[in-house]
Specification:
This protein is α/β, with parallel strands linked by helices. It has nine helices and 17 strands. Strand 9, helix 6 and strand 10 form a beta-alpha-beta unit. The relative contact order is 0.15. It catalyses: [thioredoxin]-dithiol + NADP(+) = [thioredoxin]-disulfide + NADPH + H(+).
């Protein structure tokens, strides 16, 4: 009986907390969203973070290039971040946001509405992978994307680059710094004469033919099989995915986009819609974890300043109104 009463009490407290107007609601609890929440929590702002629990880098076992966190599993970073922000009173809400109104009402799947004065969207992006057998199974293991994130761990090994995206040529040229044995598979990508010249000049071997599948043995990549039956042994492979921003919330609000179709922001992440910021991979496909965290911090700084200006303006208006009442009295 006591437990039931406690559960009801906790539920009522949670509902009351959600009914409050938050200074900032952050949508997305990756590096960008969590770092923004940390900054704002330390600024003593009332903050809620909503997360659907679908981090882009979930398949990766480790992340790299983040000072003092190099080699840390991505899930551990997020776990540490969640623990840190809760120390400053930030509320974590598990769920999916389906819409943000112009009045900054954040509507979740299931009907829950969380009120905000400002909103930060840090929903990231999704990687669209080619339909080649073995690609999805090996993604984030020994089929990799970012040379800066993962190439050091497969340095000096026989590497493959799959030509499934125009960015693959640059990827292959870049990888040559980590291995003397890099094979480029054009697959269905049409290489220009300049592409071939640059690849050959860099010392990369080009193997023609469409890819049939990734050859896997004992939960390890062993090679690339072509449709003509040839099997090229490789220890690891790189693939440039099609990156699609999860920007539906921003698009619905009418946020302006740049010439490349990504939501446009200023240096702080401020969008064209008043009171709405964005940070991380949802606006920058090149942002690594450390970059996204920095973007979240920059957005939080700007949002707190914006809120401060509003708070001061309101205080001035109230002071003048009080003074006017006193004079009339």
């Amino acid at each position: 009986m006591l437990k039931a009463m406690n559960d009801k009490g906790e539920g009522a407290q949670q509902r009351a907390a959600i009914d409050e107007v938050h200074d900032v609601v952050v949508v997305g609890a990756g590096a960008a969203g969590l770092n923004a929440a940390l900054f704002l929590g330390r600024a003593r702002r009332k903050v809620a973070v909503i997360d659907a629990g679908e981090p882009r880098n979930a398949p990766a076992s480790h992340m790299h290039g983040f000072l003092s966190r190099d080699g840390l599993p991505p899930a551990t970073l997020l776990e540490l971040g969640r623990a840190e922000i809760t120390r400053y009173g930030v509320r974590l809400i598990q769920g999916r946001v389906e819409q943000i109104d112009h009045g900054y009402n954040v509507r979740m799947v299931g009907g829950q509405v969380i009120k905000a004065r400002r909103v930060l969207v840090a929903t990231g992006l999704r990687d669209e992978l080619p339909d080649i057998p073995g690609v999805r199974e090996r993604w984030g293991k020994d089929l990799l994307h970012c040379p800066y994130c993962h190439a050091y761990e497969v340095r000096d090994q026989p590497l493959a680059v799959l030509g499934t995206h125009p960015g693959a040529v640059h990827q292959a040229l870049l990888l040559r710094a980590w291995s003397d044995d890099v094979v480029f598979f054009p697959h269905t990508l049409e290489l220009t004469a300049q592409d071939r010249e640059r690849l050959e000049a860099r010392g990369l071997r080009v193997v023609e033919g469409e890819i049939e599948r990734l050859v896997v043995d004992g939960d390890r990549l062993r090679g690339i099989e072509l449709t003509d039956g040839r099997d090229v042994p490789r220890a690891a492979a790189f693939l440039f995915p099609r990156m699609v921003p999860r920007d539906e919330l921003l698009t619905h609000l009418g946020c302006a986009k740049d010439d490349n179709g990504w939501v446009a922001t200023d240096r702080t992440g401020r969008t064209s819609v008043a009171g709405v910021w964005a940070a991380g991979n949802v606006i920058d496909p090149r942002a690594q974890v450390v970059t996204a965290a920095g973007m979240g911090s920059a957005a939080a700084f700007a949002m707190n300043t914006d809120l401060l200006d509003e708070d001061v303006d309101r205080a001035v208006e109230q002071r003048r109104a009080a003074a006017s009442t006193t004079v009339r009295g």
